[in-house]
């Protein structure tokens, strides 16, 4: 077979079937091929020489070059005898500029935080139950106040006894203090009745006898804890029944029902104004270590509401009263009611409880409703005596 059987003149880097050996200028000849496969032989590109030591090296421009021998291993095809490039047997070696087939997935880009809808303020209690219980208590109090005064005195006695039970129960549960309830309840009821029947003198005498009864009653038990128990008992006697006697002392006046009504209205209005203004506009805490929910704005709301209500109530409900006296009375009620609320909050925080009881749905216990009323009663009684007399 002559050279014309290739169909093209031989070129450098090609092998042919010529008997004269490799074409001049071609690369060294590889193994001879049979004539049967000569027609199927394809030209192969010229491969530049690479260093014998292999490995990736960078040229002056920083371009990576494939390292190691280029042709070794097994052929790419299944036809034996063909002179095709051989695959590198090194599994870690990759062709130049090869791209991984299964690249590691990129982590998801952080999504921008979605704006949260503004949280609606919560009242913290069952408002419907609180309103229902409040209205019910108001009806009972007003009905007893204007029908028969003695019935209202009975209502006060019941409130005092239940309040004493709640207070002594929490003291025993949380602090292990056993203030004697029996002498406290009997003496507390006596104080309330004596205040209505004999005024301040009767209230003081009943208070002294109650304190003595507490000291003697506690002697029937072991001496351990005697001092703290009787101290708690004396505190309870003063805090609940003695302060409550000023309500029945107001009631004893000729216009006593109206005085008590003004006292109740101003205290409730003060609490309502503090709650409404503080819930809507409260920003600056009043006493965060005692009661985090109370704000300075709420205190201003209590003062404004109580002074406005005081001017109206004293002018139209109290005989010989004037509007400016009502302003002063409302201011005093707002301050005393807030201090009373903070005082009981201090007690509950020391005991580690939220409410004194669960008797009144939406309100807690009786003591949770008396907290503002008890310290306000002597303030209103005293100012009304100064303004319009004892009646």
How many strands in all? 4
Q: Over all CA atoms, what is the radius of gyration?
A: 50 Å
State the end-to-end CA separation. 148 Å
Rounded mean pLDDT score: 79
* Poorly predicted parts: 1-38, 50-89, 91-98
Largest sheet: 2 strands, antiparallel
* Strand residue percentage: under 5%
Q: What class, by secondary structure content? A: mainly alpha
Shape: globular
| Number of helical segments with 4 or more residues | 9
Describe the strand arrangement of the main beta sheet, using strand numbers: 1-2
Q: Strand-and-helix sequence, N→C?
A: HEEHHHHHEEHHH
| Helical coverage, percent range | 40-55%
Write structural notes for this entry:
This protein has 391 residues and is mainly alpha-helical. Helix content is 55%, strand content 3%. The chain has helices spanning 35-38, 127-147, 149-175, 181-218, 226-251, 256-281, 296-317, 323-351, 367-388; strands spanning 57-58, 64-65, 285-287, 291-295. Residues 1-38, 50-89 and 91-98 have low confidence and may be disordered.
Summarize this entry quickly.
This protein has helices at residues 35-38, 127-147, 149-175, 181-218, 226-251, 256-281, 296-317, 323-351, 367-388; strands spanning 57-58, 64-65, 285-287, 291-295. It has 391 residues and is mainly alpha-helical.
Secondary structure layout:
Layout: H1 35-38, E1 57-58, E2 64-65, H2 127-147, H3 149-175, H4 181-218, H5 226-251, H6 256-281, E3 285-287, E4 291-295, H7 296-317, H8 323-351, H9 367-388
Antiparallel strand pairs: 1-2, 3-4
Helix pairs in contact: 2-3, 3-4, 3-5, 4-5, 5-6, 5-9, 6-7, 6-8, 6-9, 7-8, 8-9
């Amino acid at each position: 077979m002559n050279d014309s059987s290739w169909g093209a003149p031989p070129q450098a880097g090609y092998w042919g079937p010529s008997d004269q050996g490799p074409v001049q200028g071609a690369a060294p000849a590889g193994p001879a091929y049979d004539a049967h496969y000569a027609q199927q032989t394809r030209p192969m590109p010229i491969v530049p020489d690479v260093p014998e030591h292999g490995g990736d090296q960078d040229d002056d421009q920083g371009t990576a070059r494939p390292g190691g021998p280029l042709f070794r291993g097994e052929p790419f095809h299944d036809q034996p005898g063909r002179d095709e490039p051989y695959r590198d047997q090194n599994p870690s070696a990759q062709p130049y500029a090869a791209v991984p087939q299964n690249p590691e997935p990129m982590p998801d880009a952080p999504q921008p935080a979605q704006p949260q809808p503004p949280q609606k303020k919560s009242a913290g209690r069952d408002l419907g139950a609180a309103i229902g219980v409040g209205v019910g208590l108001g009806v009972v109090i007003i009905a007893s106040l204007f029908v028969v005064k003695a019935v209202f005195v009975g209502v006060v006695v019941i409130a005092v006894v239940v309040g004493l039970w709640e207070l002594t129960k929490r003291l025993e549960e949380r602090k292990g203090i056993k203030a004697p309830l029996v002498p406290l309840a009997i003496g507390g009821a006596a104080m309330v009745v004596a205040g209505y029947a004999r005024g301040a003198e009767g209230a003081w005498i009943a208070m002294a006898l109650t304190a003595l009864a507490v000291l003697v009653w506690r002697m029937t038990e072991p001496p351990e804890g005697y001092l703290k128990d009787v101290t708690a008992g004396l505190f309870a006697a003063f805090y609940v029944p003695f302060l409550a006697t000023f309500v029945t002392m107001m009631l004893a006046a000729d216009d006593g029902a109206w005085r008590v009504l003004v006292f109740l209205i101003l205290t409730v209005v003060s609490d309502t104004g503090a709650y409404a203004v503080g819930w809507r506009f409260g920003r600056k805490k009043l006493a965060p270590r005692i009661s985090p929910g109370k704000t300075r704005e709420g205190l201003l709301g209590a003062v404004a509401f109580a002074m406005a209500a005081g001017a109206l109530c004293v002018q139209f409900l109290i005989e010989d009263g004037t509007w400016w006296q009502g302003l002063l009375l409302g201011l005093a009620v707002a301050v005393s009611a807030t201090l009373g609320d903070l005082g009981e909050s201090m007690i509950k925080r020391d005991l580690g409880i939220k409410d004194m009881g669960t008797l009144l749905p939406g309100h807690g216990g009786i003591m949770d409703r008396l907290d503002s009323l008890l310290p306000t009663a002597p303030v209103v009684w005293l100012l009304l005596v100064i303004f319009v007399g004892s009646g």
